[in-house]
Amino acid sequence: MAPKKPKPGVRTRDGGEYTCPGCGAIYRVTVFTSPFKDTGHADCEVCNLPIKSWNQATAWWSYKLTKRPRQVIREPAKTSP
């Protein structure tokens, strides 16, 4: 699928690299800035940990998974007494 073309006035810049603290997945970050406000969020594709959220912001972020962790460490399910 081809990437979506940004709206007029939208700029992009390299946001560097992000490593998920929950599982170690590595993402390439793109930052979008615009005169238009946006609300959204990004979650880790591997462990579903929230990465970032924004509300009525003129900047928002895109996270592209570039490297999956070898092993995903999950917390054991909590049991009630």
Structural class: mainly beta
- DSSP strand count: 3
- Distance from N terminus to C terminus (CA atoms, Å) equals 49 Å
Poorly predicted residue ranges: none
Q: Could you report the average pLDDT, rounded to the nearest whole number? A: 83
The radius of gyration is: 16 Å
How would the global form be characterised? elongated
As a percent range, the share of helical residues equals under 10%
List the helices and strands and how they pair.
Layout: E1 11-19, E2 26-43, E3 50-67
Antiparallel strand pairs: 1-2, 2-3
Give your account of this protein's structure.
By secondary structure, this protein is mainly β. It has one domain (11-67). It contains no helices and three strands. The chain has strands at residues 11-19, 26-43, 50-67. Strands 1-2-3 form a three-stranded antiparallel beta sheet, with no helix packed on it. The radius of gyration is 16 Å and the shape is elongated. The mean pLDDT is 83.
